[in-house]
Amino acid sequence: MTAPGPTAEKVTAQQPPWPDPDRLEEVRRALGGRPPLIPPRRPGS
């Protein structure tokens, strides 16, 4: 659960350009059930 210091701070300070995992479902439905180009990444994973 513990991610590298700098990485964790970066993710916390700046939100990633791609949608959150929770929003990926909406994105997939909007794209017609196709997975997003950018793979889902969960902070602290």
Model description:
- This protein is mainly alpha-helical and 45 residues long.
- It is 42% helix and 0% strand.
- It has 2 helices and no strands.
- It has helices spanning 5-13, 21-30.
- The longest helix is centred in the middle third of the chain and has 10 residues, at 21-30.
- It is elongated.
- 0% of the residues are buried.
- The mean pLDDT is 63.
What is shown here, in short?
With 45 residues, the protein is mostly helical. The protein has helices at 5-13, 21-30.
Topology record:
Blueprint: H1 5-13, H2 21-30
Organism: Streptomyces melanosporofaciens
Protein name: 3-deoxy-7-phosphoheptulonate synthase
Region (Disordered): 1-23
Q: Note the overall shape.
A: elongated
- How large a portion of the residues is in β-strands, by DSSP E? under 5%
Number of helices: 2
Which spans of ≥5 residues are poorly predicted at pLDDT below 50? Answer: none
Question: Residue share in helices?
Answer: 40-55%
Largest sheet: none
Class based on secondary structure composition and strand pairing? mainly alpha
Distance linking N and C termini: 6 Å
Please provide the ordered H/E string of secondary-structure elements.
Answer: HH
Mean pLDDT: 63
Number of strands: 0
Rg from Cα: 12 Å
Protein name: 3-deoxy-7-phosphoheptulonate synthase
